[in-house]
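To: structure subgroup
Subject: Chain for Friday's discussion

All,

I'm putting the inputs and outputs inline so they're searchable in the archive.
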Amino acid sequence: MHRASFFSLCIVVVVALVFSSGASLCVAQDFPGLANPFSPIFSFPPLQAEARGTLIWMNLLKGSESAPSVPATFDFKKFWGMDQGAAFLDAMVRLQVGPFSARLHSNMRYFKGTDSFPASLAGVGVAAFDYTGLRIGGDFDVLRWGRSRVGIDMDYDLYHPVVTATGISELTGPSAMTLGFHAVYNPSYNFYGFSAVGEGRARWSIVGSQISDWEISAGLKGPETVLGSVAIMTGYRRTNVAFSDWVTVGPPWPQQTAVPVRANIDVSMGGWFGQLAYYY
């Protein structure tokens, strides 16, 4: 065996042994200091993981596209005939080392209108609002006891809010970077293996489209095992999205010649969800 490969294999085996033994290595005969499980040489913060699947019924509470300089306002539900609500499946995975966490979210929000427009706009197409994609985020726990924690978050949307009206316009908002907080109650004690859990999160834009997003949930967690534990939760989530974009308008808008105008989008969504969470 090549010497470099042999050393690489040795390193992999040593690291595996370190983690499998609770991140400590004891060789008391030759290195008495390493017998301490809190030895700074081979001591690592515990690794925790979490995965969630969420089924949410999201209602389109309000939505509008307005161009004050024209002037014109299109209501998503009254004018475009967009869905009042729809069911979506969200997912999240999180890894934590010490007070730091990294998250990856997958969210889908899509509301489609009908082709039944007023007579003056007949045949121009179908409108839709799309806010779907991946989001990355990080947490820092200011307070932490067991799995319970309170801290601050930063997130970045890897996607854009988009409003389309075929034949009229397509408006796209910039990706948002948000700052927020989290509060998680996940106790170590239990009653016959079961315990109550709860969580609240909120975030607001600091860059990009104007986003405010918050959720609160609670549920019941099952017994802890060597493979982790599972919780069933329910809660409510509310999301507001606002942005502006330039669009060139003309007929069938109340203008005879096409001109660029600034259009504003304002959307609010909210709904109840059921959630399955896995903790390791």
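Points worth raising on Friday:
Residues 1-39 have pLDDT under 50 and may be disordered.
The chain has one helix and 15 strands.

D.
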